[in-house]
Amino acid sequence: MNDAAKLLDQLNDRSREVFRRVVESYLANGDPVGSRTLTRDFSEKVSAATIRNVMQDLEYMGLLGSPHISAGRVPTQEGLRMFVDGLLEVGDLEATDRLAIDATLASNSQDVAGALDRIGAALSGVTRGASLVLAPKHEAPIRHIEFVSLGHDRALVVLVFSDGHVENRIFTPPPGHTPSSMREAANFLNSLVEGKTLSDVQRVIVREIAERRQQIDKLARDMVESGLAVWSGEGDTTERLIVRGRANLLDSHAEEEDLERIRILFDDLERKRDIAEFLELAEEGEGVRIFIGSENKLFSLSGSSLVVSPYMNADRKIIGAVGVIGPTRLNYGRIVPIVNYTAQLVGKLISDRS
Description:
GO terms for molecular function: DNA binding. Belongs to the HrcA family. Keywords: Repressor, Stress response, Transcription, Transcription regulation. Negative regulator of class I heat shock genes (grpE-dnaK-dnaJ and groELS operons). Prevents heat-shock induction of these operons. InterPro entries: GAF-like_dom_sf, HrcA, HrcA_C, WH-like_DNA-bd_sf, WH_DNA-bd_sf, WHTH_transcript_rep_HrcA_IDD. This protein is of the alpha+beta class. The chain has three domains: 3-87, Winged helix-like DNA-binding domain superfamily/Winged helix DNA-binding domain (Arc Repressor Mutant, subunit A, Orthogonal Bundle), CATH 1.10.10.10; 95-136 and 240-353, GAF domain (Beta-Lactamase), CATH 3.30.450.40; 142-236, Enolase-like, domain 1 (2-Layer Sandwich). Helix content is 48%, strand content 17%. It is built from 14 helices and ten strands. The chain has helices spanning 3-9, 13-29, 35-40, 48-60, 77-87, 95-102, 112-127, 179-193, 198-211, 218-231, 235-238, 256-270, 272-279, 332-353; strands spanning 64-65, 74-75, 130-134, 142-151, 154-161, 166-171, 241-244, 289-292, 304-312, 318-327. It has a five-stranded antiparallel sheet, with helices on both faces. A three-stranded antiparallel sheet has the order 4-5-6. A hairpin with a 4-residue loop joins strand 5 (154-161) and strand 6 (166-171). It is elongated.
């Protein structure tokens, strides 16, 4: 049982209802909730003093806080976590939201990148947050690998995939490389790669190099290892992340501290590589995941929330993720089914157009 579930078990029915109403009201309008407001529409006849005592108990437990001197309360990060884990009621996907997302696939174009961009724009539009789409790496089987010398300190590795896709990546080869060592390295790789994807090849090569250390020339081995580092290096993730709808996080009602929070968030969004690495954590398990405030180290300073879901290809392999970033005051019950549906749609798109 996690900490949120333990806290929830400590609440009686009245405390649970007070807590739920405070959180739902806060998520709906962003304002602190006072005891008199709750008394008017509480399910049983209780006094404002009774409600006030319950709210004080919830504050003592760390579930509610007072942002100002006023009597109103708002949920803390721990309170939001407990609400999301134990009390959140996830609604059905609204028809208008489904239509807005489905409309992005009206084109019969095979341009997957363009389709993902349109989906990201639609997702940010319907959620009024910033959308993130982590596009899949190219995972077609490799047909051929070649090394090309560009000078004493620069070389090119050329990857030809079975679907005709070609990737060229520049890297620094080992000192003293020769045309013969480059040919030997390419021959070694091509004897292993046929019918395998890039991630398959990386695992095989590491094992094969260890087993054939005496058989393959040291320069050729160093060439393979240098090129292998390029395949899994930093340049991979930056281009694969699509961020849309940052302007949705600004509105005319934003207070000064909210604007500072959003400015920090924008700085975070510029570090696309960091976000891509974080979203890859979502690939560790199925289903929608919610990261609130400092639970999400990347956005901890801006106090934002991330609702994210991985998506799969036709082989049920997780190949990317989609998500929505916004303030912790998100309508989680509405956004969770939107993100879930979008992830399924992207998975189907990738499978159909592969």
